[in-house]
UniProtKB/TrEMBL annotation:
The protein's name: Glyoxylase, beta-lactamase superfamily II
CDD domains membership: metallo-hydrolase-like_MBL-fold
Domain of life: Bacteria
All copies of domain Metallo-beta-lactamase, residue ranges: 21-249
Family label: Belongs to the metallo-beta-lactamase superfamily.
Annotated keywords: Hydrolase, Metal-binding, Zinc
InterPro entries linked: MBL_superfamily_lactonases, Metallo-B-lactamas, RibonucZ/Hydroxyglut_hydro
Alphabetized GO MF terms: hydrolase activity; metal ion binding
Amino acid sequence: MKVHHLNCATFRPPLVAGGLVAHCLLVETDQGLVLVDTGFGMNEMTNPKATIDPLSRKLLKPVLDINETAISQVERRGYTADDVRHVLLTHLDLDHAGGLRDFPKATVHVLDSELEAASDPRNVKERARYPKAQREGVTFRTYEAEGEDWFGFRAVRDVAGLPDDILLVPLVGHTRGHTGIAVKGDDGWMLHAGDAYFYRGEVETPPSTTFPLKLTARQTETIREQRLSNVERLRELKAGGEVEVFCAHDPVELARLA
Ligand SMILES: [Zn+2]
């Protein structure tokens, strides 16, 4: 399968040198186009105040460029919105689910615990991170966070309508139903780890971090112990050398793969 690495939103948070990206994947399969995460879509780029809360606008400082939306990038490749049949989401945070409404024919695959968190938020933090408008009219298909072994992780192999080389690899912690998405491309397996970590050094050996991104990870986490143990497991997976591991927001990882 041919896999394209896209940036579907750019952020300039005040303390983060080099900024952040929204690393998404566009996969060409026999079942049509598949997107992994959607960054910000047309709605966020043209009318940010409707879905992005004031605090997120202030902290993330998004660069609002419609050319970065997944739909613009799909169309520039000669496809239409309707060619995108499936979207897999690492989670439903507003900077990952923004483009859903741009793909009305797509089935959106998420963990059941994530859709539940978004539909029934437990606190102010969850209410802000999952703007309801982003999910209006969207067709979801949900999965339990369990499955068969995949490089020592439990993975959901039977994602409805998709080949078995696209898997959900639950990495709960950042949110209640956060998951990685594994894809076997022409060069082997890769794992989009979403917001399981924010800085590439976190999964390198020996690990390193930066203060602003360590703080970001803590401020946005839901279950700390699970988040930290997942970072350890991802570091081991990366060290094993068989899987290309990357997160959603690191611009250096994206530049290496794009
Ligand atoms: Zn994010």
